[in-house]
Amino acid sequence: MPNRIPEEVAEALEAVWTLEEKDQATLDQVFAESRATISDELLRTLQDQKLITLSESGQVSLLDDGRVLAKQIIRRHRLAERLICDAMGSHVDDSEDAACEFEHILEPGLTESICTLLGHPRYCPHNKPIPEGDCCRQAREELKPIVVSCDQLRIGESGRVAYLCSREHARLVKLSNLGIIPGLPVKLLQKWPSYVVQCDETEIALEAAVIREIYVRKTGIKK
Ligand SMILES: [Zn+2]
Ligand SMILES: [Zn+2]
Question: CA-CA distances (angstroms) from residue 147 to 151, 163, 215?
Fold first, then answer.
């Protein structure tokens, strides 16, 4: 696959991706949506290169290779929109043309840097999903929180109570009466039909609303 795909190919793939999201990927719509002029010749090239397929009824679909390319283009475009809106303070309506320019000059490495700079955004300013990159997956792995609400522990996973966070004083008192105070080791035993945690030797059943107010520092899985 060539490093840089021709602009009209990029625009056509982008149009198909966007229309597929809206479930409107027909040939007529592709012609209407695409910013570059789509010629019959271009369509044939896209089919020959196995990037798209065209059904009898005029439905256009991305094939695997086309989808991979389109995903990268869409990712660059929507990240560029975020960059223009968030970092440069432009209004979302003014971002479109600039984003189209930008998407062609963003190299893969630069795309990752911008994604990281922007905090790996999930959505563009139009609320359309930004396809994930390697950097996003990596960040999610590295930044796994160590303090979570107790209901987020996996069954069998242990932690120590870090703090209690309740807006109701009575509930805080109730929890501490149960012996649930910071520093206490807890292990999640069950989530259904009710939450059950083990604290020292005692098993305590807790309502969902209550267990969510107990924040624990994870210590791992023990048998
Ligand atoms: Zn957008
Ligand atoms: Zn990212």
Answer: 12, 9, 6
